[in-house]
TrEMBL record:
One protein family per Pfam: Palm_thioest
Stored InterPro entries: AB_hydrolase_fold
Protein name (record): Lipase
Domain of life of the organism encoding this protein: Bacteria
Coiled-coil stretches: none
Amino acid sequence: MHRPVLLVPGFLDGPASFHRMARHLRDAGFETHSIRLTPRLATCSLHDFAQHLAREVDRHAGASGEVDLVGFSMGGLVSRLYVQRHGGADHVRRLITLASPHAGSHLARMMPQEATRQMRPGSELLTDLEEDVEVLEHVDPVSLWTPFDLTVVPGASGALPVGTSESIPVKAHRLMLYDQRVLDRVTELLRE
């Protein structure tokens, strides 16, 4: 039996952004929950989103007390922050991030929201997370990213410095949620 899978959306996204992936995972036998991070305009800190994620994990973890997390874009960074700073290492078995700005994105320099400022290369938050990145090894992390990303710039910022990192040549950032290679790889990783 699989652990529940929480799908964590990106900036300005909601549960609908994971529609295809959630269906694919359910068809493969997984219990999935597409969550909504609020406020959607990311006017709060990524820490606020991580606390929201902690509540969602508590709600869906079930008897095992564990979940798997799949985070897209900002949602992957929120998931990482939850694991490293908000007690998630005790509740997450596997963390999979899709096109998440682990080393920041230059595009975030053009956005004024608090959360987007934290996603800029060299931000205080990203620098802090690099201090003890080895904490992530506990959750068997996998980062999937595309070199053609024009949202997470450069695309290689989507690679975590620990765990498994895989480049999949998807033609655009958002297509990471729909590309069959990504869907199949996420399914395979969750079965391990």
